[in-house]
Structure formats: C-alpha cells, structure tokens
Amino acid sequence: MISVVILGAGNVASHLYRGFREADNVTVSQWYNRSLDSISEHSNEVDITDDLSNLKVADVYILAVSDDAIAELSEQLPFEDRVVVHTSGGVGVYDLDKKHRRGVLYPLQSFTKGAELDFANVPMCIETIYKDSYPMLKELALSLGGPIQKVNSDQRRVLHLAAVFVNNFTNQLYRIGHEITESEGAEFDILKPLILETAKKIEHLSPFRAQTGPAKRHDKKTIKKHLKILDNNIEHKKIYELLTASIQKTHGRKKL
Amino acid sequence: MISVVILGAGNVASHLYRGFREADNVTVSQWYNRSLDSISEHSNEVDITDDLSNLKVADVYILAVSDDAIAELSEQLPFEDRVVVHTSGGVGVYDLDKKHRRGVLYPLQSFTKGAELDFANVPMCIETIYKDSYPMLKELALSLGGPIQKVNSDQRRVLHLAAVFVNNFTNQLYRIGHEITESEGAEFDILKPLILETAKKIEHLSPFRAQTGPAKRHDKKTIKKHLKILDNNIEHKKIYELLTASIQKTHGRKKL
User: DUF2520 domain: which residues (chains A, B) (predicted)?
Assistant: First the structure.
C-alpha cells in the first residue's frame, strides 16, 4: 500500500484525490491546502490540514499546485529525503527543493473542474532524479488505470509544448470555425462530427497520412475563394495563410 | 423510391454509392464514370457506363466529381430539366449548367478511401435553387441516416471554410505535435487521449468555454519557455505566436 499526501486543491489535485481514493493499492493519508475551505467537504473521508508542520509521514507528497507555487512550497516542507513530486508539464524537476527525493508525475490531459474524468484516458508521465524512486512512482501511476510513460526533462518539456498545439491551439481553431459559421447564420453544430472524425482518424493513421484538403492538393482556386471570405478578418486570414503554408511545406510540391 | 444516377468514382462517389445501396427508399439505377476501370468491380450489382449518351432517366443525378470537372460535366449531360446536384462544399450551385434543376448535396465530412464511414456521422447540407426540388433531396439525404441541414450558398461557403480550419488545419497541428515530440524521442501516441478529449469536450461545451492553457492564462513564463524550444523552427514559432495572440484576443486581457 502506497501512502500519499496531496497538496493543493485545484483541478489536478481534486481529480488525483478522487483517482487515488478509488485505487486499490493507494491510500490518501492526508490532504493539505493553505485554505481549508476548498477541501473541507472531504473532511469526513480524509485527514485535512492547512498547516505544513502537521504533515503526516507518507511515501509520496504530491504538489498539485500552480506552477509558480511549486518551488516555494517544496522549500517550506518541514522534512527532507522523502519522495516529493509535482504534477506540472512546464516546471523543471530541479525546481523542487534539493532536500527532497524529487520527481514529477505529469498527467497529460486536460482537466476541467467538475467534469468527470476517466483516468484510463490520462497518460501519466513519470520523471525522477534518483532511479530508486521510479518503481514506487510507477506503481502509483499505474494504480490510476491509464497508460504510463517514463520521460526525461526534455521529453516532458516537448510533450507539454505539443499538448498546447493539439489541445489549446486546436480548440482555438474550433473557436474560429464557430465564428466563421455564425457570421452567416450557419450551425457550428454540424461541424462536430467532422471534428470528432478528425481526432479519431489519427488513432490508426499518422497525421501526415491523414491530411487532405485544398492546401495539400495545392488547390489554388479554393484557397483564393477562402482568403476572399476572410478579407474582413485579418487575424483569421493570417492563420489560414500560415497553416496552408505549413501543410504545403510538410507535404511538398504538388505532384504533376 | 428515389432513383439515383451517380457520376464519378472518387471517395465521395464510392461512399455515396454504398450509402444509397443500403438505404431503403433509394435505388442506384446507374453508375457513370469516364473510365470503367474504377467501377467495374460493381458491374454485377449496378448498371455501369462510361457513355453519357447512355444515361438512364432518374430522379436525381449526383455529380460527385472533382471541383474543376463539375461545370463541364453538367453541360455535357444530354438532357435538361432534371434534378442535377453536385457534392462540393466549394463550388457554387450556379456553376451547374442552367438547363438543369440545380442543387447541392454537400456531405460535411472527411472521406478517406477504403476507410469505413458511418453515414450517421455525416451531416448532409442541402441547397437548391428551386423550392420544389427540396422535398426529394431532403428525403434522399435523410435516407443516409445522418443529420441534414438546409443551407444557402453563403452558409455552405463558410461551412466549407470552417471545415478547413477544424479538419485540415487541426490535423496539421497534430502533425506539428508529432514533429515536436519526435524531436526529443518522446512518444506522440501518448498525446492521443488528449487529442480525443479536446474534440469530445466541445460536444457539450462551446470552444470558448472549453479553452484552457498558458495563452488564455497569460502565463508569460510558460509562453517564453515554449518559444525558446521553438527557436530552431521559425514556422512553428510563428504559428505558436499567432494562435497565442488569437486566443488572447478571443478571451481578452487577464483578469487582475
């Protein structure tokens, strides 16, 4: 049985709390937050505290706090030589205070407050400085039921960056699609099956092979028509031009 | 029973052929292509021809050919005053020869050769010039089992443009994610659950409300780190900057 103390009360902390509560071989011994308000509703299930000097001894301390708070909180922990991990994609493992056996448990998924999340769909990226903390972190990550991946700092950094492209930027393209359709009173909803199909297609096909459309075909007539529609929105037009050029760079010149 | 003649042998033509063959109230009377090679394997199921002067009388003629071929093929059809539709998102309904009762049946989905496609997930956009052709085209579209939508030319135009954003451009973001992860030997595959979640999220949440991440949070530290990683790829960096600016324009200044 792995004992865990969770620190923080945001989306990741709350989802991890629930995930570990449901895991067979993990026990959440304590939940810390600097304010008890956000976690007090769980006080009948778990020991809660807002006092770092009251922290229990545990196998792992999970700092699921905002990026900016990680370094300072890790410093304030009143013990050393224990396994302390943060959950951020964008913060270095060395940002944790060096008195700890440091590591990272980075859930590569988009967490929405209140929304149900199946951990089977949450890949856990594990990074450790000392090899001997890996087996336990691996067991901990596996207990959530999703895929796990051992990564180094560079890999975690690029995964975090790539996640911004495939999640935040993709979502912004959906938003632009929404704006474009609404400009003529068309229904954005009828694009949803296409959106889902686009995401599903790459389960079995590389994005390279899955590509279609006017940019890849070098269909100048259609591209010209589209740019004309976008004449009234210079930002959308720039994004159209840049992504069209990017597709054409990836796929090369038109075959004659 | 609606009788249909399909013209063309590309992805859309092939999928429509299969879709209509399975529909209860539709019969495919004939399949035309300028070369019989691509459709000859179906000669025991349907009458096939490569001769326009042999075309049978039918309720609807569906020109599922490349955009550039639509106008000319519609001109060459040796009859008039029959319902003739094309299936393109990007071509005007008036590009069809005016001797016909013109319309468009635009399937708003990405068709991949050989891949199975469930028409339940293919919204059919219907456009007609004459009101009296609408009821039959509606019945025809409904027979495929997916959602249908009556659109005008402007709406079809923006839907086609929006489809490029949410399909081709999104797929290119996946491709960039692939390149970025591979640059450090990380696995692109562990981004796939996030990709699927991003697409599924907007089933019930607008893209506006679904947005998260460093751009929306105005998290300058993370953005700076990401741009530094992208220093070796000026195109990707430009796309990062442009989409970050787009998100920030959509979501406004950071709340203090």
Answer: 122-246
Give every strand in the sheet of A124-128, ordered side by side: A47-49, A26-32, A2-7, A60-63, A83-86, A101-107, A124-128, A148-150
Contact between B19 and B12 under an 8 Å Cβ cutoff? The reply is no
Question: What ipTM goes with this model?
Answer: 0.93
Residue A11 has pLDDT above 60, yes or no: yes
pLDDT in tens, A175-202: 999 999 999 999 999 999 999 999 999 9
Cβ contacts of B201 within 8 Å, gap of 6 or more: A110, A112, A171, B210
A130's tokens: 């000392």
For residue range B210-221, list pLDDT tens digits in order: 999 999 999 999
What lies within 8 Å, CB to CB, of A245 at 6+ separation is B235
Query: What are B242's strand-pairing partners?
Result: none
pLDDT of residue B169: 98
The neighbour count for residue A46, using CB atoms within 10 Å, is 16
Which amino acid belongs to residue A124? M
B173 inside 8 A of chain A by CB:
yes
* Cα–Cα distance measured from residue B44 to residue B37, given in angstroms and rounded to the nearest whole number: 14
Residue A60 phi, psi dihedral angles, 5° rounding:
-140, 140
pLDDT per position as a tens digit, B138-185:
999 999 999 999 999 999 999 999 999 999 999 999 999 999 999 999
For residue A196, give the chain B residue with the closest CA. Answer: B199
Q: Is B100 exposed, middle or buried (0-12, 13-18, 19+ CB in 10 A)?
A: buried
The 3-class secondary structure across chain B, one letter per residue, is CEEEEEECCCHHHHHHHHHHHHCCCEEEEEEECCCHHHCHHHCCCCEEECCHHHCCCCCEEEECCCHHHHHHHHHHCCCCCCEEEECCCCCCHHHCCCCCEEEEEEECCCCCCCCCCCHHHCCEEEEECCHHHHHHHHHHHHCCCCCEEECCHHHHHHHHHHHHHHHHHHHHHHHHHHHHHHCCCCCHHHHHHHHHHHHHHCCCCCHHHHCCCHHHHCCHHHHHHHHHHHHHCHHHHHHHHHHHHHHHHHHCCCCC
- Name every chain B residue with its beta carbon within 8 A of the beta carbon of A225: 90, 157
**Which domains does chain B show, CATH number per domain?**
2-151 (3.40.50.720), 156-251 (1.10.1040.20)
Q: How many CB pairs under 8 A join A and B?
A: 318
Contact predicate A230/B194, CB 8 Å: no
With H, G, I as helix, E, B as strand and everything else as coil, classify residue A159.
helix
**A210: nearest CA in chain B?**
B171
Return the number of other C-beta atoms located less than 10 Å from residue B220's C-beta: 10
Mean local confidence (pLDDT), A229-234 = 96
- Contact check, Cβ <8 Å, A108/B193: yes
B-contacting residues in A 103-122 (Cβ below 8 Å) = 108-110, 112, 121-122
Amino acid at B24: D
Structure tokens, A128: 């450790």
